[in-house]
């Protein structure tokens, strides 16, 4: 088992190498809009999982996840060779590419937060002129000081 700090450092280096190779050396147009977001390396440094996102050509265009996955799969051997040359480790880790779901999850969370803000605004709007049910002051009023003086006199007599 390797040191966790070494595994993190290797993961970061693998991310850099793979991203650079995709940008400059792999000649596949399906990888033009692919971004490497993270890499995780197992404790024994034998397997690396590379996470990626795919953007659409335009803001309203849907990304081509299937094409990007196929292109990464076909370039896996060349990318592993580049990782081996760039890291200098004894055993070059196998590469597994996984589509990153963080952008979709963050969009879903943002939508939920917006819905919650709208609901809070609606509650605030409805409660703006509302009054409490029952008496305006539901608590018992404290005794007057005269009552306390009388109680003190009764206790001293009794």
Explain what the structure shows.
- The protein is an alpha+beta fold.
- The protein has a domain at 4-100: K homology (KH) domain (GMP Synthetase, Chain A, domain 3), CATH 3.30.300.
- The chain contains five helices and three strands.
- The chain has a three-stranded mixed β-sheet, with helices on one face.
- Strand 1 (34-41) and strand 2 (47-54) form a beta hairpin.
- The longest helix has 25 residues, at 102-126.
- The mean pLDDT is 86.
In a few lines, what is going on in this structure?
The chain is of the alpha+beta class and about 160 residues long. It is built from five helices and three strands. It is elongated and about 100 Å long.
Spatial order of the strands forming the largest sheet? 1-2-3
Number of DSSP strand runs = 3
C-alpha geometry: elongated
String of helices and strands: HEEHHEHH
> Which stretches of 5+ consecutive residues score pLDDT under 50?
none
As a percent range, the share of helical residues equals 40-55%
Q: Structural class of the helix and strand makeup? A: alpha+beta
How many individual helices?
Answer: 5
From the structure above, extract its key features.
single chain; 158 residues; GMP Synthetase, Chain A, domain 3; three-stranded mixed sheet; elongated
Topology:
Layout: H1 4-24, E1 34-41, E2 47-54, H2 65-74, H3 76-87, E3 94-99, H4 102-126, H5 145-157
Parallel strand pairs: 2-3
Antiparallel strand pairs: 1-2
Helix pairs in contact: 1-3
């Amino acid at each position: 088992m390797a040191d966790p700090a070494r595994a993190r450092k290797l993961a970061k280096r693998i991310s850099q190498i793979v991203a650079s190779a995709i940008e400059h050396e792999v000649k596949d147009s399906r990888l033009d809009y692919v971004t490497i977001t993270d890499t995780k390396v197992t404790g024994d440094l034998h397997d690396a999982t590379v996470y990626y996102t795919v953007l659409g050509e335009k803001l309203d265009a849907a990304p081509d996840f299937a094409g990007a996955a196929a292109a990464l799969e076909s370039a896996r051997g060349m990318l592993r060779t580049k990782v081996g040359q760039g890291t200098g480790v004894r055993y070059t880790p196998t590469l597994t590419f996984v589509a990153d779901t963080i952008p979709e999850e963050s969009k879903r969370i943002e939508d939920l937060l917006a819905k919650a803000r709208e609901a809070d605004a609606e509650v605030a709007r409805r409660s703006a002129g509302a009054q409490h049910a029952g008496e305006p002051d539901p608590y018992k009023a404290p005794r007057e000081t005269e009552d306390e003086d009388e109680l003190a006199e009764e206790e001293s007599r009794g």
